[in-house]
């Protein structure tokens, strides 16, 4: 186990507070946060990928009676969101779900529809949408393929699994493929570099942790101050010059992301149990996950694979060649990625009640199952929506049906995507067995405490 640059820890011990110039540079700038919020929620940065009409035509591909988009925009939007696991936008978005946006309207370009960060980083819980909550229901593959087919085009078969289950996305491989098409100076290549990375699909981390982290991504190999690294998807079309022009905007967006806070647990908490649970947490969990409240300290620990024991595919999947290539580019000039593979970063647990399923691959549906490894299901059905009727207030997370038999190959893909199968690449549910030593009562107290974070 190792500690990384402990900037937050130093603030707490007051050392850096002695330096006024330092505290000035770290204090959040409300104007930048507001510019970032605007920039993220009102502007598309990619050219349109689909025609405006594709959104309304996708319903014809569902093999069921979809409400006609032209008869009731609202009913169609609800059915569209249900079908693809998307959520209504908590900001003005022209009737489109969060994650899709109209692009190219100004500047005379061809107008149409594009995805943005919130297709993965916009989620909902109990019917309320949040920017920055990971989208735990998205079927990204179906969304991209259906919109393309609705435009009478076909996507080439993907070289990797975008997602085999709802709510997990292979964002890493999208970046790898884009980066492999660029030279170190980011000029386009005719043939991709063979970088040898093989990453799995992942659960999406909430943005509200970013403000506490010194390093980010699940393996903690990137400095959390890196603005450029969160711009990698723009390699889909942008030149180095265009990326440089966008960087100040993404600096503001980064400030906005760091300002986000999790929603509070909406049901009652048994304070007596929670207080007992805090003691269990202090004994068993604080050394990796830190403390909470106004004086909370986050240790930013990256835990070796041999200790954490969770699915190794993500930690192993980033090849040395890929990291070395990334580090020769503009993206890494300020903050190169760490060459060393360690394991997984113990994340902050703020708002943990709202971010089920758990672990970096979303392989465990509830906190109860995370903290008692024998209860983790090998194959389970993910909920049809994030409505509270599917929420388990005792186990904390999503109610689930255990699926005993392997899904029949004749199951339509739309149905099959609801099944999370831990035997697939990268989706193992082992490891993190730190709760196994607790008694059932201690575990229940601990879960009560976790609701308060
Ligand atoms: C296809 C889904 C997808 C899209 C689109 C996407 N992300 Fe992510 N994002 C992820 C996943 C998955 C991770 C976890 C990656 C990992 O650690 O390997 C992640 C990680 C992050 C993190 C690190 C969070 C942390 O605490 O470690 C940031 C910051 C981030 N994304 C910002 C963005 C921004 C900004 C955009 C838009 C330009 C964006 N993402 C678009 C899926 C996506
Ligand atoms: C040795 C360090 C260590 C200890 C001790 C530890 N954890 Fe963790 N925890 C981690 C790491 C690392 C991860 C991320 C693993 C992954 O995603 O593969 C994690 C993940 C989690 C998650 C899932 C987070 C998410 O967003 O999906 C929860 C919840 C959690 N831990 C709670 C606890 C509790 C409660 C305890 C005490 C019983 C505890 N942990 C003890 C290191 C630790």
From TrEMBL:
<dbReference type="Pfam" id="PF21419">
    <property type="entry name" value="RoxA-like_Cyt-c"/>
</dbReference>
<dbReference type="GO" id="GO:0009055">
    <property type="term" value="F:electron transfer activity"/>
</dbReference>
<keyword id="KW-0479">Metal-binding</keyword>
<dbReference type="GO" id="GO:0046872">
    <property type="term" value="F:metal ion binding"/>
</dbReference>
<keyword id="KW-0349">Heme</keyword>
<protein>
    <recommendedName>
        <fullName>Cytochrome c domain-containing protein</fullName>
    </recommendedName>
</protein>
<dbReference type="GO" id="GO:0020037">
    <property type="term" value="F:heme binding"/>
</dbReference>
<keyword id="KW-0408">Iron</keyword>
<dbReference type="InterPro" id="IPR036909">
    <property type="entry name" value="Cyt_c-like_dom_sf"/>
</dbReference>
<dbReference type="GO" id="GO:0004130">
    <property type="term" value="F:cytochrome-c peroxidase activity"/>
</dbReference>
<keyword id="KW-0732">Signal</keyword>
<feature type="signal peptide">
    <location>
        <begin position="1"/>
        <end position="25"/>
    </location>
</feature>
<dbReference type="InterPro" id="IPR009056">
    <property type="entry name" value="Cyt_c-like_dom"/>
</dbReference>
<dbReference type="InterPro" id="IPR051395">
    <property type="entry name" value="Cytochrome_c_Peroxidase/MauG"/>
</dbReference>
<feature type="domain" description="Cytochrome c">
    <location>
        <begin position="272"/>
        <end position="453"/>
    </location>
</feature>
């Amino acid at each position: 186990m190792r500690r990384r640059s402990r900037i937050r820890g130093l603030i707490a011990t007051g050392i850096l507070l002695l330096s006024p110039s330092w505290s000035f540079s770290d204090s959040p700038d409300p104007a930048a946060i507001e510019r970032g919020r605007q920039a993220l929620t009102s502007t598309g940065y990619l050219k349109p990928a689909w025609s405006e009409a594709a959104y309304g035509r996708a319903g014809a591909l569902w093999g069921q009676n979809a409400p006609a988009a032209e008869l009731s925009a609202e009913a169609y939007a609800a059915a569209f969101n249900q079908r693809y696991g998307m959520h209504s936008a908590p900001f003005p978005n022209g009737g489109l779900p969060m994650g899709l946006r109209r692009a190219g309207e100004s500047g005379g370009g061809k107008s149409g529809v594009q995805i943005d960060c919130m297709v993965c980083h916009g989620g909902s819980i109990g019917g309320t949408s949040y920017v920055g909550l990971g989208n735990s229901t998205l079927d990204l593959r179906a969304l991209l393929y259906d919109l393309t087919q609705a435009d009478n085009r076909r996507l080439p078969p993907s070289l990797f699994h975008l997602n085999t289950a709802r709510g997990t996305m292979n964002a890493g491989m999208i970046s790898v493929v884009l980066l492999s098409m660029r030279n170190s100076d980011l000029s386009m290549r005719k043939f991709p570099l063979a970088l040898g990375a093989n990453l799995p699909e992942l659960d999406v981390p909430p943005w509200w942790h970013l403000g506490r982290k010194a390093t980010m991504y699940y393996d903690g190999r990137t400095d959390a101050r890196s603005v450029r690294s969160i711009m990698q998807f723009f390699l889909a079309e942008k030149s180095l010059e265009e990326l440089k022009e966008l960087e100040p905007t993404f600096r503001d967006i980064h400030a906005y992301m760091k300002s986000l806070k999790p929603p509070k647990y909406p049901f009652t908490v048994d304070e007596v149990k929670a207080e007992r649970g805090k003691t269990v947490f202090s004994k068993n969990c604080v050394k990796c996950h830190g403390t909470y409240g106004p004086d909370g300290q986050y240790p930013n620990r990256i835990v070796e694979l041999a200790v954490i024991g969770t699915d190794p595919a993500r930690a192993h999947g980033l090849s040395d060649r890929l990291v070395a290539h990334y580090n020769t580019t503009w993206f890494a000039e300020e903050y190169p990625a760490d060459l060393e593979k360690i394991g997984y970063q113990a994340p902050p647990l703020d708002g943990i009640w709202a971010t089920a399923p758990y672990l970096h691959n979303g392989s465990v549906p509830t906190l109860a199952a995370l903290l008692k490894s024998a209860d983790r299901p090998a194959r389970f059905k993910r909920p049809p929506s994030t409505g509270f009727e599917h929420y388990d207030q005792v186990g904390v997370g999503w109610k689930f049906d255990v699926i005993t038999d392997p899904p029949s190959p004749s199951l339509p893909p739309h149905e099959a995507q609801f099944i999370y199968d831990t035997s697939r690449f990268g989706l193992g549910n082992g490891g993190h067995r730190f709760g196994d030593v607790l008694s059932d009562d201690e575990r229940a107290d601990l879960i009560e405490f976790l609701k308060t974070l």
